[in-house]
Amino acid sequence: MKNPRFLLWIIILLTVISVFVNLPSSFNLSIKPFKPVSFDKAAILSKIKITKKLDFRKGLDLEGGTSITLKAEMKNIPSTQRKDALESAKSIIERRVNLFGVAESIVQTSTVNGEYRIIVELPGVTDLNEVRKLIGTTAELTFWEEVGTQSGKFKENQPNYPLNLPSGYNRTNLTGNDLKQSAVGFNQNTGNPQVLLTFTSDGSQKFGEITKRVVGKRLAIVLDNMVIEAPSVNEPILGGNAEISGGFTVETAKALATELNAGALPVPLTTLQSHVIGPTLGLSSLQKSLFAGALGFVVIVIFMIILYGSLGVIASVALALYTLFVLAIFKLSSLTPYSITLTLSGIAGFILSIGMAVDANILIFERIKEELRAGKNKRVALEMGFSRAWTSIRDSNISTLITSAVLYKFGIGTVKGFALVLAIGVLVSMFSAIVVTRTFLKLVYK
Q1: β-pair partners for 121
Q2: Which residues, 6 or more positions from 119, have their beta carbon under 8 angstroms from its beta carbon?
Q3: How many other CB atoms are found less than 10 A from the CB of residue 199?
Q4: What whole-number distance in Å separates Cα of residue 196 and Cα of residue 174?
Q5: Which end of the chain is more exposed for a tag (fewer CB within 10 A), N or C?
Q6: CATH number assigned to the domain covering 65-277
Q7: Count of CB atoms within 10 A of residue 387's CB?
Q8: SS3 readout for 334-352
Q9: What is the CATH code for 279-445?
């Protein structure tokens, strides 16, 4: 891995990928006397089985839309179950927002002065009444028994038939009001995670009668008109307890238990505040932020070249690649469930990380200068400069990462966005300074 040519090819590959990711979705380039060139990123991505749009996920302050803060009334919920109840309510709202078709929505929880809150941000949605209707009702947990293959008209004859449930099911009289609690457990024989259900006395009787009827068939568990699980019933289940096993991981079992508790632990929600943000304000702020970032980048490049000459040129190239890499990470994250949402505070964190990326180069160059003044040749000065600067770079960046982690853990909303973007910038800046800059210097000195 110490071969600079090998590392150079890795850097070139990462650069090509980053340039491709950061290019616009499509454009036409016409330069005489060459033939016009058209570019369609979506068509290229579809060939490698990527159908999701590759773009930045913008927050409410950039996109415009509706922000609403809800308070969960916990006075009737036991203190030991309040955290789970809040997560359940969050899960319900996320599902309803997704069914509503709102792209890039943000739903997050917060605890302020003993109050349990849910913050919902819906980019592009400006009808507050529609939003309140969407997220203000209590979750509905129902159970549907399989009765056999039926025609498509079977669905039409039953109101509120679950959207993703095949035809051939009847709704039972068992609901979320009959479920006392659900929890994660482990099969004693296999050790695999499973979901444990505990019903009330009335619910136990209903559940026993239903499972007698559907032995050898499926019993679908439906939350908010969407099927979340449809296990097969192998034998009648009596006694008020049931187990759902279906190849769960610990995470998926916990998620299912949380969703089921949403029906068992309904939390009344009241609106604390709501407002509509216009996209014009977001666009204006975004343009100003991008201009500030571009101006800062140019000033840093000029400063480095004036102060360090050819070394400054190399650092500037590494800085440009750093910017490409970070922006590519932001876009690529949109393909994952953990996409990074860009807000104005996040952009501020990114701009701040550009300056921090240069700090590492300055430490390295100053160390190299000291070694050259001590009479070392350039190759030795380069190696010793990097090795002696590394501890300072490592410690300073780790302290920044710790700060970012604390902000992300205890902050809310835009504070979390700032912390996440700053942490990503710090990690990429370490790669840029130690790998990219070092490889370029080795090749130049060689």
Answers
A1: 67, 106
A2: 67, 68, 69, 70, 106, 107, 108, 109, 110, 412, 413
A3: 23
A4: 17
A5: N
A6: 3.30.1360.200
A7: 10
A8: HHCCCCCEECHHHHHHHHH
A9: 1.20.1640.10
Question: Number of C-alpha atoms within 13 angstroms, CB side, residue 398?
Answer: 6
Number of other CB atoms surrounding residue 65 within 10 Å: 25
Give mean pLDDT, residues 45-58.
73
Per DSSP bridges, beta strands 341-342 and 57-58 are parallel
Q: What pLDDT is stored for residue 186 in this prediction?
A: 87
Rounded-to-integer distance, Cα 126 and Cα 129, Å: 9
Q: Which two tokens stand for residue 292?
A: 């500030």
Whether the model clears a pTM of 0.90, i.e. scores above it, the answer is no
24-33, 203-212, 389-398, 415-424: segment of lowest average pLDDT: 24-33
Ordered by start, the domain boundaries in the chain are 65-277, 279-445
Which of the residue ranges 56-70, 135-149, 388-402 would you say has the lowest mean pLDDT? 135-149
SS3 59: coil
Tokens 């259900």 label which residue? 197
How does residue 446 score in pLDDT terms, banded at 50, 70 and 90?
low
Listing from the earlier edge strand, what are the strands of the sheet with 226-229?
169-175, 141-146, 219-223, 226-229
Distance CA 200, CA 176 (A): 10
Mean pLDDT value of segment 92-119: 74
Average pLDDT, the chain: 79
Residues 6+ apart with CB under 8 A from 4: 439, 442, 443, 446
